[in-house]
């Protein structure tokens, strides 16, 4: 995050507050999120894409009421993919028309809820859903703006579990074989639907813009086909999210303005070649906005040195607050933040307190050899897909999210308590 530095005692501060104070006040483990950085990233994306485009923040990365308010204030729209995310957004007055509703298996109840709320668009993910959404809209006497999600058939270079544009996976309707053209044909016939555009999301944690370019080109190709067949120029395309962030010093992400420039250029060029009016572009970054804005603060517990191998450093959290290392082999860095140390670096593996050996937070890292129980260590870039994928494994209590801003800190999602856990257990 942008407001992290070290004070004269060597302790790390964020937003002007040192980590020991944060740990004392809010406890560990905890996610500490730099609100100014979050807002600045929202503005970077808005400004990069300009008034002729829309930025939908992908709520799955991390969503809370405070986040919704920030988005609203900074002029972003919101992508939700469940009734829970929708309810969170509506509960603090996010205008429904600025919300897009996603998902490969939306229930009828969810569709009803979204249409009744008046969401700005529903992204149709399958042939069955085209009919399902149309029926609900007709029953409610509405005409629902929709986009069709297509799979453009590119291989995004990322982990298999988070790549989504190849054909052999559950999302979307294939461009290949005329499937997407058939979906458009069906959607255009249904009174309950107002087909406004085509959507493509190629995957997540992607650095190479080439995949987005291929995707943009193919989506524009479909728009041209639709124009030729139906005489309709669909006014919108959404190119999804997926832009990578730096988890370690080896990652080199693009800046929003570079991304915007290349997407605007490619869409503009392709549309001109096809004789199409340039559609309104939208994107759905989640990780690129919230990921870098937060770190997880842990207290060091047990140390297990293995001669000639590495030292296992156990922290007071683990796979319940960050599943990404275990699930995707994700890489993170870690730093001693409560003090400086002149000691030699030692090879460590930062592990949690859960009952399995795969409970790894940082697979390989160096920390000072004088590391001791009670030290505070921080894992940066945990703002995306850590709290949102946190679990109660081993009845762990999910950590709080604390927003740090202007030298003050406040809890935006509180730490779970044993009462929270027991309240659900009604047996
Ligand atoms: N739009 C759609 C339709 C999506 O499915 C996603 C992410 C996004 C936008 C936002 O992608 P982002 O900009 O955040 O990469 N849990 C995984 C990531 C799963 C992403 C799922 N969809 C992880 O921790 O890496």
TrEMBL record:
Cofactor: pyridoxal 5'-phosphate
Modified residues (N6-(pyridoxal phosphate)lysine): 60
Coiled coil: none
EC number: 4.1.1.20
Reactions mediated catalytically: meso-2,6-diaminopimelate + H(+) = L-lysine + CO2
Cross-referenced PROSITE patterns: ODR_DC_2_1, ODR_DC_2_2
Chain positions recorded as pyridoxal 5'-phosphate binding sites: 242, 284-287, 385
All copies of domain Orn/DAP/Arg decarboxylase 2 C-terminal, residue ranges: 297-383
Enzyme class name: lyase
CDD domains tied to this protein: PLPDE_III_DapDC (cd06828)
Keyword Flavoprotein on entry: no
Pathway assignment: Amino-acid biosynthesis; L-lysine biosynthesis via DAP pathway; L-lysine from DL-2,6-diaminopimelate: step 1/1
GO molecular function, one term: diaminopimelate decarboxylase activity
Domain of life according to the entry: Bacteria
Keywords: Amino-acid biosynthesis, Decarboxylase, Lyase, Lysine biosynthesis, Pyridoxal phosphate
Annotated residues for binding of substrate: 287, 324, 328, 356, 385
Family of this protein: Belongs to the Orn/Lys/Arg decarboxylase class-II family. LysA subfamily.
Assembly with partners or alone: Homodimer.
Protein's job: Specifically catalyzes the decarboxylation of meso-diaminopimelate (meso-DAP) to L-lysine.
Protein name: Diaminopimelate decarboxylase
Biological source species: Streptomyces physcomitrii
